[in-house]
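Notebook entry, structure prediction.
Reason for the run: the old model in the group folder had no record of what sequence produced it. Starting over properly, with the input documented here first.
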Amino acid sequence: MFIGILIVVAVVILFLISIYNRLVWLKHNVENAFADIDVQMKMRFDLIENLVNTVKGYASHEKDTLEKLTSARTSFMSAQSTNDKIEADSMLTGALKSLFAVSENYPDLKANQNFLQLQTELADIENKIAAVRRFFNSAIKEYNVALEVFPNNILAGMYGFQKERGYFEVTDEAEKKVPQVHF
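New structure, fully documented this time:
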C-alpha cells in the first residue's frame, strides 16, 4: 500500500516536472524566434543604410523619405518591447515603400547596378523575415495554448508564466488589400 502511494506521488511529481519543463522550453522557443527576427531585421537595416546612401547620390532633394527611413531604423533599434518593435517594423515597411516610389522618378537610379543588387538582396531578406515571422507566430501560438490548457494553466499560474506578446501581424490596412494591376 505504501509503495503504491509513493509510485502515485512520484508519477504526479514527474508529470508536473514535465509540464514545467515544457513551458520553459516553449518560452525559450518564443524568445529564440523573436531573436531570429532581430537578426534578419539587423541585416535589413544594414542593407537599407547602403540603399539610402545609393539613393542620396541620385535624389538628394528627397530628404524627407530618407529621414523617415533613418527614423524608422532608429525606432526599431531603440525599441524595448516586442510590440514597440512590431510598430517600428510597420513604420520601416512604409518608409521602404516610399523609397521605392521615389526611385521610380529616377531612371538612372533604377538602372544603377548597386541599387538593383541592393533591391534584390532586400527582397531576399524580406522573404526571410516573413519566414521567421511565421515561425515566431507559430511559437507564440504553441506557447499561449500550452498556458491555457488544463492542467498546465494551474502550474503556469503558480510559477508566473504569462501569456506572451501579440502576433506579428500586418497592421497597415492598405497592405491587406488585393493589389490592382493595370496594363
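Summary: The mean pLDDT is 80.
The old model has been moved to the deprecated folder.
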